[in-house]
Design a protein that fits this description.
This protein is of the alpha+beta class. The protein has five helices and six strands, in the order H-E-E-H-H-E-H-E-E-E-H.
Length: 115
Amino acid sequence: MTKKLLDEIVEISFKENALDEKMIMDIASKLKRRELKAYVRRLRNELSKRSVMIISPRSFSENAKNLFHQTFSDKIVTFETDPSYLLGVKIINGDMVYDQTLKGEFDHITQRMRE
């Protein structure tokens, strides 16, 4: 399978910036094992590019969620709570990570002390 064909089938696997499960199952049933592995790998990569994950120690208000949806209007925005972050927010946008949490600061200080 060529890279161009793989890009095309990954693109049609999305419907309105969300995964189309029916299309994915249809495509997967027609691929050989090796092609399927390449397809899944490329699909995960594309989903990562189209997604933003917002992690906070507490859940966000609807106003805050709406603000994030407006800010990342071209992306799939998901919210997660993780009490270990203590304070702040961590935003994962594709392969970029913006860590503005107290836990992240503690980890950074600890790492610098070990150097």
